[in-house]
Amino acid sequence: MDIGRDLEKQLQSERDNDVRRTAYDSELRFYSLISSGDVNALKLYLEHRDINASGSTSGRKGILSNNSLNNEKYHAVVMTALISRFCIEAGMDIAVSYTLSDIFIRRVDEARSADEIGELCNTIAIEYCQRMSDLAKKQVVSRYVLLAIDYIRAHVQDNLTVEQVANALSVNTSYLSKLFKKDMGKSISEYIRDSKIEIAENMLRHLDDSSLEIANYLGFSSQSHFIQVFKKQTGLTPEEYRKQHYHKSWISDIDK
């Protein structure tokens, strides 16, 4: 078996036919969205973009089987495996993530049409995302704190203030602040900051966005403010963090 020959033949065929695969950054954004637990953003993403079994929304899927149905199944299995690993890295219990993955992969195996597999892929993405959202709230007791966390997660890209969160929930700012501190062990401002920095870390690990692009995406007032907050929180500038952690994840752990 000459893998090198087969590889070059396939690459040549794709070049000749102007085949473009799904952008790597696009797939990472999809998986990161799920592991962040932002259910509302994920549902909006799925509503506006037709997701296929590989988790990609545009471009060509690799040919894993000459049988079209099996090809869809194999991509769904890969997608499920990647989601489970991203969620483990973000804090999901290993046993829960792997078992959930096993259950979904068996359902994919039993599927009898591409449409059924497509629906399953949406279900898998939302189920994992919802569990990651619940994970962040499982220690919370107060209903208002739960609502505040949901609101912050849904608006983490905005330049949020404590007053905005309280007004959105129609509750007194001082009361919500005390309640949040009691249940979460940190202030609302700290939680907003931590949520933004967590997303920024994920983007720096996996994407090529500049500090300015990340600052704008996460609603910081300026690039310099973002760098200042990031360094205070992590001890590193965004670029220093990227140099140390870029593309290091569960994949690199396996290689060690």
Describe the structure.
It is a single chain. With 256 residues, this protein is mostly helical. The protein has two domains: 20-136; 143-249, Homeodomain-like (Arc Repressor Mutant, subunit A). The protein is 72% helix and 0% strand. It has 14 helices and no strands. The chain has helices at 3-16, 24-36, 39-48, 68-89, 94-110, 114-137, 143-154, 162-169, 173-184, 188-206, 211-217, 223-234, 238-245, 250-255. Helix 4 runs parallel beside helix 6 (114-137), helix 10 (188-206) crosses helix 13 and helix 11 packs across helix 12. The longest helix has 24 residues, at 114-137. The chain is globular and about 65 Å long. It starts with a helix and ends with a helix.
Ordered list of secondary-structure elements with their pairings:
Layout lengths: L2 H14 L7 H13 L2 H10 L19 H22 L4 H17 L3 H24 L5 H12 L7 H8 L3 H12 L3 H19 L4 H7 L5 H12 L3 H8 L4 H6 L1
Helix pairs in contact: 2-4, 2-6, 2-10, 3-6, 4-5, 4-6, 5-6, 7-8, 10-13, 11-12
Short description:
The protein is mainly alpha-helical. It is built from 14 helices and no strands. The longest helix is centred in the middle third of the chain and has 24 residues.
